[in-house]
Amino acid sequence: MSNTDQRHQKAVVTANKPRDSLRLGFVGMGLMGVPMVQRLLQARYRVNIWNRSPEKTRTPELANAISKPSLGELVDDSDIIMICVSDSAAVEELIFTPDGIAQSARNDQIVIDFSSIQPDITRALAQQLHLKTGAAWIDAPVSGGVAGAESGSLAIMAGGPEVLIDALRPHLKALSQRVTRMGDVGCGQATKICNQMLVSCNIAAMAEVLAMAEKSGVDAAALPSALRGGFADSIPLQITGSRMVNKEFDEIKWRIKTLIKDLRMADDLSSASQAETPMSKLALSILQQHGDEGFLDLDPATLIERYTN
After folding, report:
1. Residue 286 DSSP SS3
2. What global pTM score does this model have?
3. What is the pLDDT of residue 3?
4. Torsion angle (degrees, nearest 10) of CA 120, 122, 125, 126
5. What's the CA gap between 152 and 146, in Å, rounded?
6. pLDDT higher than threshold 80 for residue 5
């Protein structure tokens, strides 16, 4: 066992607990957090929840999630603390707020962060939390969107000790089709950035392709079906393509501002690693212009509006 693995022996014991004796805590009742909690409840886990806006806990409470009045009380009554919030600043606040995770975490606890945040901040938070409390950290950003969260088919990209990730796999099965260890802490977040670069460039290309097809007399609504299974096919095309053409924007599956946030992280990572990323920089510019025109909180399907109006 490596030195890193030895530091987390107590966390591995926790991860190996059977489902009926494991207490999960979940922080963040957003678009992804609520269906993820519901999946865990359906798998018969006990799930404590907390959210900065208490009104958002109502849906999971109806499914028998246990709402805690404070973050500290959730930490006290949980073995594994799961986080799914908007950005790096939100995760950092959860850890170090006066009633935060670092104030009462124990050395047999595990923090699993499903948020998409910066790799360097992830590594710093994980180190600080472990030094202060002994708690272990796994960064486990997800891909698959709300539909994947609802169906339990998310792809999880994990960073952390191999022995701990392996011990957690049975518990993550309720949420995911696949858990892949990408390296040490922070590598999961770097992988998610790569994922978002591909997704964002895909979405940007889809919007202009579908708009051009429509203007050329093509039945653009049939394009996703026509391209299914070919080299141009993708999950975003199948999920978002028809919504773009049919202008089905009301149901928000994800948000323009989320892609912008992720592409800004990609820009930072490319600078730090001295990697060239011109396509992602172009996608960031297009999405930022679209966001500045009032679309920040709307679905990326709205990007086609730039080319059809």
Report:
1. helix
2. 0.93
3. 62
4. -120
5. 10
6. no
